Amino acid sequence: MTQYSKRMVIVHWLTLVLLIAAWYLGDSLADSTDESKATLAGYIVHIAVGGTVLLLTAFRFYFRNNDGVPKPMGVSPMDKLAKGVHYLLYTVLFVLPLSGIVILLTSKAGPALLAFDATMLPKEHGYRGVFAHEIHEQLVNVLIALVVLHVLGAIKHQFIDKDGLMERMMLRRKD
Ligand code: HEM
Ligand code: HEM
Questions:
Q1: Domain-embedded: residue 99
Q2: Would 175 be classed as within a structural domain?
Q3: pTM of the full structure
Q4: Nearest to 169 by CA among 40, 12, 34, 30
Q5: 52 lies in a domain?
Q6: Torsion-angle region of residue 38: left (phi > 0), alpha (psi -120 to 50) or beta?
Q7: CB under 6 Å to ligand 1: residues?
Q8: Helices 77-106 and 131-155 meet at what angle, rounded to 10?
Q9: pLDDT tens figures, 52-88
Q10: Could you tell me the residue range of the domain that residue 74 belongs to?
Q11: Ligand 2 centre from 175 Cα, in Å?
């Protein structure tokens, strides 16, 4: 096996698109909360996109176990670092959306959504003291840092090592 299965490739790139959308939507939501203008729709869209990331990550593990993965590129310290970054990325892909669910359970946002009443949503400083909100926000920064490292690694393989690593995560089959 020299490439990831097609469904692993699709989930990998779809996750990238959904993460960009969830990040943008989450940031807009936080801005509207600061202005005490958050809407139920704003919450629902962010939760739907972020929740899809969680679901896709669960499917991804099922696909990974069933389809297998290509052999590691090598055993150098850089290869081990890349593997460590993959583990951390997977961890954040689970814990970040889960922390979002905990925000709903531990703040006024959950009851507001259940009652479908926008006036009950947290207003400016409404998330003060909500620990899961702090974690959620920090995990987004951790995710960005990990993705930057990950992409730098891919660029090194593509333009310096020129070893065809990118083809492993592409739909076009080599054979
Ligand atoms: C991996 C997917 C996700 C990403 C990238 C993401 C990203 C973000 C970002 C950037 C913020 C703004 C944080 C701030 O600056 O205060 C945010 C806020 C929030 N997110 Fe997520 N999120 C994700 C998944 C979820 C899920 C699944 C839920 C709920 C089930 C959720 C619930 C919330 C809530 C309640 C807030 C607070 C909104 C506010 O501050 O007004 N998120 N998210
Ligand atoms: C432009 C952005 C990206 C590029 C160019 C890229 C490229 C790649 C490549 C080439 C691989 C295969 C590595 C190998 O075979 O050793 C890979 C694997 C992986 N990527 Fe990305 N990636 C990107 C974005 C992301 C994002 C946003 C995430 C998740 C947050 C992510 C998570 C992963 C994980 C977890 C693996 C390991 C797959 C496994 O073995 O199960 N990638 N990526």
A1: yes
A2: no
A3: 0.96
A4: 12
A5: yes
A6: beta
A7: 19, 22-23, 26-27, 29-30, 33, 38, 46-47, 50-51, 53-54, 96-97, 100-101, 103-104, 109, 127, 133, 136-137, 140
A8: 150
A9: 999 999 999 999 999 999 998 889 999 999 999 999 9
A10: 6-169
A11: 21
